[in-house]
């Protein structure tokens, strides 16, 4: 487990509103994540504004393309100085190897590179519709194995798979888990969920938490409550 496991997912369409929340947060308490919506709207300027406020940033763009294109995309992320970025493991071994190799020149300044396995919004039935006739946990394990073979730092998965994955792939292989919901919170479109405390106990290294914080009447209080629940 990290000493700072909470990553707040900033999924806002309004930059001022996002910065209003960020300005109330302490970089010692959490890291931040910018995904497709905010990066498409506000681009590298937003990344720089977040870095200037002292936060580690996970740039969650889930690159999924041919090896050459993904290698160039992760290089661009490294140039932005982000702490973590990601690709889709289903892009394949050659793509992940190319992405990891592209980061070699950055040495210890390279972002952590992780791979998305099965989205936490997906169930076994959703996978069946894609022709994947094994339980989500089994498919996650298969993609995690490919990710480790490619030399990446870890994966995005559900906390429901965390204990099995830690046992199989070892404690250094980082598990980044969205689909985190405090007891009684609305699941929204998430399917494979767990509470923050249970996720940590199961072996998650980082908890990605969005709406339970950002849509709360008092986001700072919601974050503090989750933070305290982990002690
Ligand atoms: O499998 C995945 C991969 C990424 N995400 C992202 O995490 C956050 C979760 O937000 P909530 O509001 O807490 O549901 C969101 O930005 C997703 O893009 C994921 O949920 N599942």
TrEMBL record:
Residues noted as binding substrate in the record, renumbered to the chain: 11, 33, 60-69, 120, 181, 190, 210-211
Gene3D superfamilies hit by this protein: Aldolase class I
Domain of life: Bacteria
Pathway: Pyrimidine metabolism; UMP biosynthesis via de novo pathway; UMP from orotate: step 2/2
Pfam families: OMPdecase
UniProt keyword list: Decarboxylase, Lyase, Pyrimidine biosynthesis
Reaction(s) catalysed (UniProt annotation): orotidine 5'-phosphate + H(+) = UMP + CO2
Active-site residue list: 62
Enzyme Commission number(s) from the entry: 4.1.1.23
Domain Orotidine 5'-phosphate decarboxylase, residue spans: 5-226
Role noted for this protein: Catalyzes the decarboxylation of orotidine 5'-monophosphate (OMP) to uridine 5'-monophosphate (UMP).
Family listed: Belongs to the OMP decarboxylase family. Type 1 subfamily.
HAMAP family with a match to the protein in the record: OMPdecase_type1_B
Subunit structure: Homodimer.
Protein name: Orotidine 5'-phosphate decarboxylase
Gene source species: Shewanella colwelliana (Alteromonas colwelliana)
Upper taxonomic lineage: Bacteria, Pseudomonadati, Pseudomonadota, Gammaproteobacteria, Alteromonadales
Protein encoded by which gene: pyrF
């Amino acid at each position: 487990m990290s000493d700072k496991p909470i990553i707040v997912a900033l999924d806002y369409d309004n930059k001022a509103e996002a910065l209003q929340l960020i300005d109330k947060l302490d970089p010692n308490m959490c890291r931040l994540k910018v995904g497709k919506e905010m990066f498409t709207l506000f681009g590298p300027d937003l990344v720089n504004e977040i870095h200037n406020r002292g936060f580690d940033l996970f740039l969650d763009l889930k690159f999924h393309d041919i090896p050459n294109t993904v290698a160039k995309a992760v290089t661009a992320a490294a140039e932005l100085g982000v702490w973590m970025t990601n690709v889709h493991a289903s892009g394949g071994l050659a793509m992940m190897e190319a992405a990891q190799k592209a980061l070699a020149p950055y040495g210890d300044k390279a972002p952590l590179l992780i791979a998305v396995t099965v989205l936490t919004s997906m169930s076994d039935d959703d996978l069946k519709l894609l022709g994947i006739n094994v339980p989500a946990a089994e498919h996650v394990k298969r993609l995690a194995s490919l990710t480790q073979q490619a030399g990446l730092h870890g994966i995005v998965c559900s906390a429901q798979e965390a204990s099995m994955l830690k046992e199989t792939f070892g404690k250094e292989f980082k598990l980044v888990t969205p689909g985190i919901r405090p007891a009684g919170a609305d699941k929204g479109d998430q399917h494979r969920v767990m509470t923050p405390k249970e996720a940590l106990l199961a072996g998650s290294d980082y908890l990605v938490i969005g709406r339970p914080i950002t849509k709360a009447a008092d986001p700072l209080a919601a974050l503090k409550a989750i933070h305290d629940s982990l002690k």
